[in-house]
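New to this. Please check this protein:
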Amino acid sequence: MDLEAIDRLEEKIKLLVSMVDRLRSDNARQAAEHSRLEADNQRLGRELEAARARLSDVEGASSEVGTLREERELIRARVAEMLHRIEALNL
């Protein structure tokens, strides 16, 4: 084997080692990014559930407000009728 072939082989090995190092670094970066995204995904999932719970509460409150308004109108009508009867008695 001549010295030139050994030098080429050495250069190829160095390139391969460099490529492996780069791939390991890229893999580590991607793993860190994956972990960060997974944590974000879990946080957003919790926020979504909290928002759904708040929406359910708001919908319940809205329904209750509608019921209370209907009751208020019934009470107003009854009071108006009572006032009308009282006025009729005073004549």
